[in-house]
Specification:
Oligomer: single chain
Order of helices and strands: EEEHEEHHEHHHHEHEHEEHH
Radius of gyration: 20 Å
Helix content: 25-40%
Strand order of the largest sheet: 6-7-8-3-9-10
Strand content: 15-25%
Number of helices: 11
Number of strands: 10
CATH architecture: 3-Layer(aba) Sandwich
CATH topology: Rossmann fold
Distance between the termini: 43 Å
Bound molecules: adenosine-5'-triphosphate, magnesium ion
Structural class: alpha/beta
């Protein structure tokens, strides 16, 4: 397969066992991911949805190589990284695959200003030289995620920003190393509804302007449909259904996907009569209870601009 036609990420037969307490003194191993296989193409956004505890974050952490898989292959750009870098991910892999976490506050260091958070990856990966070059790159990155004037933002500490602004800093930090794949684990679920659409639009534009591929983990079917080319549905550590977003949401085949859609507030039918041009308003995955109403996207992604998004 030629370099451009093969998927950027191919996950094959991924399994994960965790050890957990079994009584007071004993521990036992429990398999939480079973034979998970999927791919993410270049410039593609793929959403992973499913109820709480189904294994979504575990998939994210395995692909980001924050934890080790029990079985399976993680093939990135044609190379099985579990074989080529068995002990830990190389600096190169960590540059190419970046993760954005649910809690932007938790992922930023309250002791440092915003400039520090963006400077660090630039210096670590040799992408800027200290001095004017570094400052210009930090400003450019902050401006690119709609944080301006960047000079003012640079001197602030994380607790002086809003949740939406913090998540933009986290995205700018990930962008600093020009990743090819971003894994976003519930990037908007802790944000106020009014800030969510801005972050989703920003992610949409990253794909458009930089060709970044994304694995988007969300409870929110509306966000998944809005952003993702394809959706994968996870239940009990298995992907039970995957397909193009509109197709999957308009004509779900698996009973679990049908139940997820039937549980959408407002009772939208999962059947073929559901319109593909309208997002399933308020659709959150049943059983999670953690996510208030989603942004209700009203326009097509191509019309969206990051710079106009308030944070
Ligand atoms: N470090 C760990 N040790 C033991 N069990 C774990 C660990 N991390 C996750 N699990 C278990 O693995 C399962 C999947 O967890 P995971 O966090 O991947 O779910 P999730 O789909 O992301 O859920 P949520 O939507 O609530 O974030 C859960 O049963 C969880 O308790
Ligand atoms: Mg999770």
């Amino acid at each position: 397969m030629s370099e451009s036609s093969r998927p950027l990420l191919e996950v094959r037969g991924l399994c994960k066992d965790f050890s957990e307490a079994d009584g007071l003194f004993r521990r036992r191993s429990r398999r939480v991911l079973h034979d998970v296989s999927f791919s993410v193409g270049r410039g593609e956004i793929v959403a992973l949805v499913g109820e709480s505890g189904s294994g979504k974050s575990t998939v994210a952490r395995l692909v980001a190589r924050l934890i080790a898989a029990t079985e399976g292959e993680i093939v990135f750009d044609g190379v099985d990284v579990r074989k080529s870098e068995p002990r830990r991910a190389s600096l190169v892999y960590r540059k190419r695959v970046q993760m954005i976490f649910q809690d932007p506050f938790g992922s930023l260091n309250p002791a440092h200003d915003i400039a520090y958070h963006i400077e660090r990856p630039l210096l670590r990966h040799g992408l800027a030289k200290r001095g004017a070059d570094l400052e210009a790159k930090v400003h450019e990155l902050l401006e690119s995620v709609g944080l301006s004037p960047a000079a003012d933002v640079c001197s602030k500490r994380p607790d002086e920003l809003s949740g939406g602004q913090r998540q933009r800093v986290a995205i700018a930090r990930a962008l600093a190393v020009q990743p090819e794949l971003m894994i976003a684990d519930e990037p908007t679920s802790m944000l106020d509804v009014s800030l969510r659409i801005g972050v989703l639009n920003l992610m949409q534009n990253l794909r458009r302007d930089h060709g970044v591929s994304m694995l988007l983990i969300t409870h929110d079917l509306a966000s998944a449909r809005y952003l993702a080319d394809r959706i994968m549905v996870m239940k009990d550590g298995k992907i039970v259904e995957q397909g193009p977003s509109d197709e999957l949401l308009n004509d779900p085949q698996h009973p679990y996907t049908q139940r997820l859609l039937a549980a959408v507030p407002g009772g939208r039918s999962p059947g073929p009569e559901a319109s593909s041009s309208e997002p399933p308003d308020g659709a959150t995955v049943a059983g999670t209870g953690s996510e208030p109403a989603p942004p209700a996207p009203t326009s097509q992604p191509s019309h969206l601009e990051t710079s106009t998004c308030p944070t």
